[in-house]
């Protein structure tokens, strides 16, 4: 059965409506690009880079407000100390594998130099999850050129999912994981607002996997689809990037990022000790001119944040499930196989629990 998004399978989660693309790119101005690295010589590589532009090329001088949250900290996202201090994001960000954070971070700086960006210094945001089960991460297959390709190739519109970009070698709930995205549209402060989420999902055990509350991981057990490990591990990580066009202050962005935790919990994640669960949210509803002495900003009233919180949780949940349904069975280093979630079995299981068409 061909790989598909969750809704294309006649399945849905949550109550809120998605945006037109059901993707982070439903937030106007957001662009996503991937560089996928797959080869078997001179090393085995199943890896890559995913780039997200929060806004247009003026992001370098017209920052967006931003905040982040850590569920469990066995992971890395560079640049977050400065976001915590200043509350602004003024450049594109990237997600890659654990061992390539440095080269991708440096590539963003080189990209800014190439584009003659008028900034005295840069502290780029690069998040990571570990793909060393399938990819020879210790051979450092990701280069600066891959990061630049992801940045240059970023577009609006539909976002490729599954085994692409930084998600190429990732594993989720003992099935093949990777990149997933989703969005929700709500009314807040009297206006339509969009919340979009993109995840790089590389966490979780089979037994805990839930789809719309259905114990899919138990129903499609290791006797049906083998796990990649004989002894399951509770480790693994997930990066979530949340975007919204609602005008939020940095502290409100931080609050929004925190709600990704709920969506992950709905799918079956809880933040194990060796998991890096790091979430970044930004708002395009406030643009701050970094060269100006004064910038007018707006904020949604605290009570109006509630629908945005629900949107963030629902979009995170569906983004993870889209990563699972889009990803393909992958063979990597030493012949290791990570099987994709079987979509026909998923549909059959959901029907037995009264879900789907």
Describe this structure in words.
This protein is an alpha+beta fold and 357 residues long. The protein has one domain: L-amino peptidase D-ALA esterase/amidase, CATH 3.60.70. The chain is 23% helix and 27% strand. It has 8 helices and 14 strands. It has helices at residues 80-86, 101-114, 144-152, 216-219, 250-258, 260-267, 305-326, 343-352; strands at residues 31-39, 45-53, 62-73, 88-89, 93-97, 125-129, 171-172, 175-176, 178-188, 191-203, 236-244, 276-289, 330-331, 337-338. It has a 6-stranded mixed β-sheet with strand order 4-3-12-11-10-9. It has a 4-stranded mixed β-sheet with strand order 1-2-5-6. A two-stranded antiparallel ribbon has the order 7-8. Helix 2 (101-114) crosses helix 3 and helix 6 packs across helix 7. The longest helix has 22 residues, at 305-326. It is globular, with a radius of gyration of 19 Å. It starts with 30 loop residues before the first strand and ends in a 5-residue tail after the last helix.
């Amino acid at each position: 059965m061909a790989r598909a998004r969750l809704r294309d399978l006649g399945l849905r989660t949550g109550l809120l409506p998605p945006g037109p693309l059901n993707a982070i790119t439903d937030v106007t101005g957001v662009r996503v690009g991937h560089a996928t690295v797959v080869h078997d010589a001179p090393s085995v590589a199943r890896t890559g880079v995913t780039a997200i532009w929060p806004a247009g090329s003026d992001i370098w001088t017209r920052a967006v407000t931003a905040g982040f949250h850590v569920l469990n900290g066995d992971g890395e996202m560079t640049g977050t100390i400065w976001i915590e201090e200043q509350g602004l994001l003024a450049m594109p960000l990237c997600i890659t594998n654990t061992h390539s954070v440095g080269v991708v971070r440096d590539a963003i700086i080189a990209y800014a130099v190439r584009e003659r960006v008028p900034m005295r210094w840069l502290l780029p945001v690069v998040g990571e999850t570990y793909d060393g089960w399938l990819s020879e991460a210790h051979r450092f297959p990701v280069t600066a050129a891959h990061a630049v390709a992801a940045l240059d190739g970023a577009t609006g519109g539909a976002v490729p999912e599954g085994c692409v970009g930084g998600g190429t070698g990732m594993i989720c709930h003992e099935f093949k994981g990777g990149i997933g995205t989703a969005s929700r549209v709500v009314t807040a402060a009297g206006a339509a607002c969009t919340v979009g989420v993109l995840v790089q999902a590389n966490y979780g055990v089979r037994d805990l996997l839930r789809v719309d509350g259905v114990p899919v991981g138990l129903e499609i057990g290791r006797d049906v689809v083998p796990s990649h490990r004989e002894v399951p591990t509770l480790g693994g990580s997930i990066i979530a990037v949340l975007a919204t066009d609602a005008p939020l202050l940095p502290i409100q962005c931080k609050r929004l990022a925190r709600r990704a935790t709920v969506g992950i919990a709905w799918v079956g994640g809880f933040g194990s000790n060796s998991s890096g669960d790091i979430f970044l949210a930004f708002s395009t509803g406030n643009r701050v001119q970094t060269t100006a002495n004064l910038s007018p900003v707006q904020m949604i009233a605290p009570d109006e944040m509630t629908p945005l919180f629900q949107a963030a949780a629902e979009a995170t949940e569906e983004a993870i499930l889209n990563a699972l349904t889009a990803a393909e069975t992958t063979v990597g280093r030493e012949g290791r196989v990570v099987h994709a979630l079987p979509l026909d079995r998923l549909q059959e299981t959901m029907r037995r629990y009264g879900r789907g068409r």
